[in-house]
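Query structure, 77 tokens:
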């Protein structure tokens, strides 16, 4: 089913129900298809710690670097 935006605005509840029950709905503007109305699919739970023990942070990670400081602040006088 292809429906123009203006009509879709007035019939949104009906269109949502149709899509929920398996109907394909395409929303168009000036009869040019723009988007598909599709049912929501929940994403799976995100798993934390995928890189645990796989990334090594160097001991000097938080130490200042003179070259980088020079780029930001200029040369010391």
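Result returned for the query:
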């Amino acid at each position: 089913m292809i429906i123009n935006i203006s009509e879709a605005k007035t019939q949104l509840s009906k269109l949502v129900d149709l899509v929920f029950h398996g109907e394909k709905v395409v929303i168009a503007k000036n009869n040019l298809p723009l988007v598909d109305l599709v049912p929501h699919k929940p994403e799976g739970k995100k798993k934390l710690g995928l890189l645990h023990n796989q990334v090594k942070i160097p001991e000097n990670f938080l130490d200042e670097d003179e070259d980088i400081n020079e780029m930001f602040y200029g040369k010391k006088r």
